[in-house]
Each structure stands twice: as structure tokens, then as C-alpha cells.
Amino acid sequence: MDQAALETARTIIEKWRPKKGNLIMILHDVQDAFGYIPPDIARYLARTLHIPLARIYEVLTFYHYFKLQPPGKYKISVCMGTACYLKGSPSLLQELKNILNVEEGQTTKDGMFYLESVRCLGCCGLSPALAVNETVHGTLTKSDVIDIVSQYAKEA
Amino acid sequence: MITKTVLIKDTTPGSTSGTKEFFDVFTAALRESKLADEIRLVRAADIGVYNHGIVLKILPDNITYANVQHHDIKRIIGVTLKHGNPIKDLLYQPRAYQLRLVLKNCGRIDPESIDDYIAHDGYRALSAALQAGPDTVIREITASGLRGRGGGGFPTGLKWSMTRSTPGNEKYMICNADEGDPGAYMDRSVLEGDPHAVIEGMLIAGFAIGASQGYFYIRAEYPLAIERVQKAIDQAHAYGLVGERIFGSDFSMDLEIRLGAGAFVCGEETALIASIEGKRGTPSPRPPYPSVKGLWGKPTCINNVETLANVPSIIRNGSAWFSRIGTENSKGTKVFAVTGKVRNSGLIEVPMGTTLRDIVFEIGGGTASGKRFKAVQTGGPSGGVIPEHLLDTPVDYDNLQKLGSIMGSGGMIVMDEDDCMVDIAKFYLKFCVDESCGKCAPCRIGGYQMLNLLENISRGNATLEDLERLRLIAKAMQKASLCGLGQTAANPVLSTLRYFEDEYREHILNRRCPSKKCTALLQFIIDRSRCKKCGLCARSCPEKAITGDKEHGYTIDTARCINCGMCFETCKFGAVERN
Amino acid sequence: MAALTADDLAAIASRIHDQNASWIRVGMSTCGIAAGAERVYAALEDELQRQGAGVQLKKCGCLGMCAAEPLVEVNIAGMPRVIYCRVDEACARDIVRGHVCGGKLLQDYIIDMQSEDAS
């Protein structure tokens, strides 16, 4: 594990050390910093916090939010809330799978796009919607999807 | 010099040019009457009234006319615009269906400015509560009749007094902002639009129960809400409204944010507590209730965002004021996220007792497509559907329960004739199966088995006995599951079965999906007469089941077709038919 | 600073109420931002400066009409208070030039909401 990563992890742990029940918050900060929870960092947390590694993974695998694989540069989250579902988000997801040639939870070979479906983005007024990283695109039709993907591909 | 403004909108369904035509005729008439410089005519995008022909709103008189005809223009100019008198036969009394109490400040104040909140009566309730003392505060909240807005509807005052009366000098207050119901975002809006109101509610609740530490448990998927709540806590801290000796009193309380991590079951109180403790969010049997043994084994009170946002105005205006709003057993207002196939999807707040019909048709404006309304779903994965003939039911906790649904946190999803009830039941049940924590067998196994049965129905591989099986498993789950998730997971299935059994039978007996949603029961063919031979469908087909070329046209090989429906959606000419 | 007293609340409130009577509010919750409210806010800010209009511009939460976002509410002395819906950058500039500076309401953008406040 490189020194900078270790230093980041140490800072996060120190920030939360005085707080009770801090494990989930530490994992959130680690994921914010690295984009996912690297196994090396998980081991480092176990050693430093004196928690069995199994307990850390028990928590990590329980919650959908935590990722064990590095995500792509752009994370595409297709909303599968009820409103979006009714208004056609499954076909947006299918279109993205076709365009990117990945399944849900996978990253494209070039590491550019990570595709996932999420519970609800809370933008039901703009359904169907998807988010690229934290930018929400709403009121979409299937044909908008390719434009969004190429827009980000161009920016990269 | 302009003296009056007239807003114009043609509210006839399907009309596209009515507003413009009327506007032009009216403009000419004004010019003729030499009033063009005094009256301002404006075409509105939406006038808040639907299906009432041409609607005019005259300002500042605040007169609304509906079903106005072109020949009425002369009268309107002569009587109303010149002399300010209303014309009785055109008058329309728009009812204010909404009553904004929780959302009072949302969209009005700057959520990032504590001063702006204070300027809108902010923190006055906290100051009053500290002077009145905990017992008076609890008495007021109890008398107001406020019930939990997260779904359960437990009386808030009772919850507070139970936590207060449990002995112990260390107690916790938690705000549940783990809004997991897909299709609902009331709490997000309140946290983003008026975070200080929730903080003030938290502090008053903490004071009442005797807590010195409070936690906001917020979904990690709500970055903006998290940012604004943190900013609000910091501002309140700087003003001494959070922290030591608040308002110079003996009361001290700190607030902190803890993040959810995408587990629906954490909306359940005991699971939420486990999550704040940094563990897997699995529920525990109750009793002991959190009010006795909660966070880190200490007495804990958990209230939902909307519940807490109600607290400051109750303290400010008194319980009598609050309990005048609503129905006998459900007081106050409720915020709903009205979404799905409705025209005006958005967030609304209505007094308890408003009918579903008023919500869907008067506020929501009916279906967006103009297609037939089929049902409205309340309560998300724990709730049920309510069909058209029950729309006149006044919304409150007890009525919705009687109909086989629940109030829930406030998601309200409108469905039209294109939505298949078997598919809806499958959608919600799949959600609960994915979210089941797996701790107890009825939920873990029952949900999975029910989902299999539904899957078979939507593929046409089921028998009528399967409907009985569904009911049987549902009963077992309701009776034997450990927590609310499992106990209510079958509700969407039961309620669709209760009101739309015909649709289930149609799938089973005739292998037909009336809403053409269950693709396994459909057959796709290309209508030669409408096909423009563009080839888009062939390119969209993931199974390469569409063959042909731009000269001869295309056909679908039904043996290879997996009924995914991509070609149907792709075709721009409606040449792909599904039957 | 020292902890606030109850009297301080009134002082802060009156300070805020003294501010300019003319204002523009932009709905900036998740749904508004997703629909483009940040670009609208920037356009309003820029155009107000160009026109030298002394109007307070404010970021607010959600008014509830999510399908009609971005929403811009305008209150200019002597004119009816209105809410514009589905505002884009061009419309935002028109609001400043037409409504704020020109005393004209924009055609086809006004949304009228029938609701009542409980205080």
C-alpha cells in the first residue's frame, strides 16, 4: 500500500476516533477518498481500530452503498424508484447496457463508465432520471441516453 | 398606466392553441375599448385549475372566471376591468386544496441562512419551550394529536413521554431521515428547503425527553440535504442554539449527522439504531422498545423528519390550533410526493381528510397522458393500491389501513391503464426481497417464494391455486416476520389481488396481460404497411432475431425473440406491434 | 460570539425584514438543480448586474412543483408577484430585462399555484 493512501486512511481514522460507533462513517470517508473500499485499506482499518476484518466485511457487504471494486471515472446510476420504473427507466438501463456493453455493477473495459441501478434519486418529478456522478439528468427518453454517454466520453 | 393584470389559460384537455386564440381576440377587444395601456394580458403556463375551459384570473382583484367564451369578453371588459365588479355566472371559486404548514418555508427562505429562518419566526418555539419546561412541552404535543409521519402513525407525545419517564441520565434523540421508499422524497425536500425547522424540532424533542445528544440519520444518496443540514447545525452552533447552555438555560444538546448506506430495512427503528452503532442494520425483537433500551442500550426516541418539522409550529401556535386541522384521529397536514403518471408530479401538502380524488385530479391535474386512471399507490413497498371507485376516501391513517394500504411516509404514485398490476406487485415485492436483511425466515423465504409465484404468473405458467398460495404465504409473513419490513412486504401483492384479481386471472387463464406490460405474454410482429424499412429495430435487437434489409423490409423470428420489447420502443413509426 | 438570547431573535428578524422589498427567488433543491437551476441562477445574477437592477436574488428550497422546475419567483414593487416555470437561461435574462426593468410579465411561463399558508 502506498504511503499517500495510508496517510489518507490515518487522517480519516483520527477524525472519527473520538466518536462512538464510528465504523460506518469511516467507511463512508474511505469510499469518498478512494471511490471504493480497497482491500488494503480494509485490512489497515482492522489493525488500527482493533476490529476483526470479518466484521468490517460483514458491514461492507450488508450495505448496498459500499463498493468493493473501483468504479469507473463516471458512475452512471439509473433510478429504479417507482415513478421512474413506471415511466420507462428499465429501457434506459437496457439501452445503457447495450451501448456500454456491461451489466449492472460493472465498469467498461477502458475504466470510463460504471453502470448501476439505484433505489431512488429523489427526483421523481423528473422521471425517468439517471445520475452521472452527482449530476442528475431527468425526463429522459431512450434516445437521450446515447447523447449523455457521448457527452461525457468527449469530456474525458 | 397599468391597473390590472389578466392571466389567461385554456384548461380544456388536449387543447394546444386555445390560450393563444383567446389571447389574440382579447387583445383586439382591449385595443377597441382603448384599454390596451391599462390592462396587462398574460398567457399563463399553468393556472392551477384543470378541465374548466378557458380560465382567467384578474389581479389585483383576485377574481377567477372559468369556462369563459369568446362572447363573454365584452362583459368582462365592461363590468370587471372598467368597474371592478365581478360577473356572477362566470365566477369560479378556486379551492385552495393545499395547506402548507411543514412546507411553509420551503421555497420561501434561504435554507443556508439561519438569519432568514429566524426572520420567519425561527427558534422562537425553542425559546418558549425552554421556558415552559419539558412536561408542558409534552402535554402540548400530546394534546395536538400529532402522530408519526414516517408511516407508523404512533402518537408523538406518547413516544416522548415514554422516553422521558424511563429512568437514566443518558438519553438519545434520533431524526430518521433514511427515506428509503422508492418514489418519495418529502424528507429530502424539507431537509434541503428548511433544515433549521427540523433542527429546532430536534432540540425541542431532546429537551422534552431529556437527551443531550441527537443524531440525524440521513441517506448517503442525499448529498445536498447532508450539506445543508451540516451547514445549518454549524450556524446554530455559532449562535449558541446547539451545544452548551442553549439560550442561557441549563439545557445542553449536541447534534451530529450519521449516514445511511443504502439499506431500506434501516428505516426500522431497531435496525437504524444498529446502523448508527456502526453495525449491520438488522432489526431486533421488540420489546424492549427503543424508548426503554435504544442506542447503546440507553433510552432513545426516534422521530421522522416531517414529524419533527411539525413541532416548532405546534409549540408556537398551540395544540388547539393544530388539532383544528385534519380529521378526528389524524391531526394536521401530510406532505405527499405525488408522482408517476400524473400531470403535475411534485410535492404537495394537504390537511388530513382531503380525498384522494382531490389530490390526484384537482392538485395533480389527472393523468399526464390523458389515459384512464387506474390506481394510486400509497405507502411504497409496505403499502397498497387504491382503485378508482375508492378515490373519494378522505386520506387519514385509519382509512388507508381499512383499504389495505397504509399512509406510509407519503409516496403517492399514480398509475394509468398502461400499468399492469401483476407487474407492480412484482416490482414492490422484488424490492422487499432485495432489501430483506435475511435474519428471520418468514421474510427471507416467504418473500422469495411469493416472488417466484408472481414471476410464473407474469410468464403465463401459473394456475389459480397459485393465487391461494400467495395469500397463504402473505398471511404467514404478516404474522411471523420479525420487523415491519417483512410484516408489510406482502401488502402490495394482497392489495392488487384484492382490487384487481381479474387481471391476475387474465394472466393465468388466458395467458394475456391486459396492459401489455408482461413481455413474456406478448408477441411482437412488424406491420409491413407501416414499416419504413429503416432497419433501426434490427440494430436494436440484442438477440439478432430481426432479419431483413432496407430493400425488402424486416421480420421478427419469433423462435429467437426473447420478448424484450426493444424493437417496439425503438421504432419511430409504430410499425412494431405487440399483442 | 456569545450565546443568543430570546431578545436577539427579534433583532435579527427586524434586520432581515428591513431589506429590499424587491426580490427574485430561485428553487435550488435537488430537483431544481437537476433541471438546470444553477445555470438559471447564474444568468439572473449576471443579467441583474448588467442592468444595474437593485433586486435581491435568493437561493431557496423546493416549492413542490417538481415537474415544472426550474422555478423562479419574482416580486417587484408595483407588480403582481408571480412564479415562472420551466425557466432556461434565455428566459432568465428576459425576466430581468422584461419583468424587472421593463415592467412587463413574460408570456407563457407563469404558473399559478392555489395554496394557502398556515402560520
Beta content of chain B comes to: 15-25%
Helical element count of chain B?
21
Number of domains of chain B: 5
CATH superfamily of the largest domain in chain B: NADH-ubiquinone oxidoreductase 51kDa subunit
The end-to-end distance of chain B, rounded to whole angstroms, is 63 Å
**Poorly predicted tracts of residues of chain C:** none
Widest beta sheet: strand line-up of chain C = 2-1-3-4-5
Helix content of chain C: 25-40%
How is the main sheet of chain C built?
5 strands, mixed
Average pLDDT rating of chain B: 94
Give the strand tally of chain C. 6
Tally the helices of chain C.
4
Rg from alpha-carbon coordinates of chain C: 16 Å
Describe the structure concisely for a colleague:
The complex is a heterotrimer of chains A (156), B (579) and C (119). Chain A has seven helices and five strands, in the order ααααβααββββα. Chain A is of the alpha+beta class.
Describe the structure.
The complex is a heterotrimer of chains A (156), B (579) and C (119). With 156 residues, chain A is α+β, with helices and mostly antiparallel strands. Chain A has helices spanning 3-16, 23-34, 39-49, 53-62, 82-86, 89-100, 144-155; strands at residues 74-79, 106-107, 113-118, 130-132, 135-137. Chain A has two domains: 3-62; 74-155, Glutaredoxin (3-Layer(aba) Sandwich). Chain A contains seven helices and five strands; from the N terminus they run H-H-H-H-E-H-H-E-E-E-E-H. The longest helix of chain A has 14 residues, at 3-16. In chain B, the strands form five sheets. Chain B has a five-stranded mixed sheet. A four-stranded mixed sheet of chain B has the order 2-1-3-4, with helices on one face. In chain B, helix 4 (124-132) crosses helix 11 (305-317), helix 5 (134-144) packs antiparallel against helix 6 (156-165) and helix 5 (134-144) crosses helix 8. The termini of chain B are far apart. Chain C has a five-stranded mixed sheet, with helices on one face. The longest helix of chain C has 15 residues, at 37-51. Chain C is globular and about 45 Å long. Chains B and C meet through strand 2, strand 5, helix 3, helix 7 and helix 9 of B and helix 1, helix 2, strand 2, strand 5 and strand 6 of C. Strand 5 of chain B pairs parallel with strand 6 of chain C.
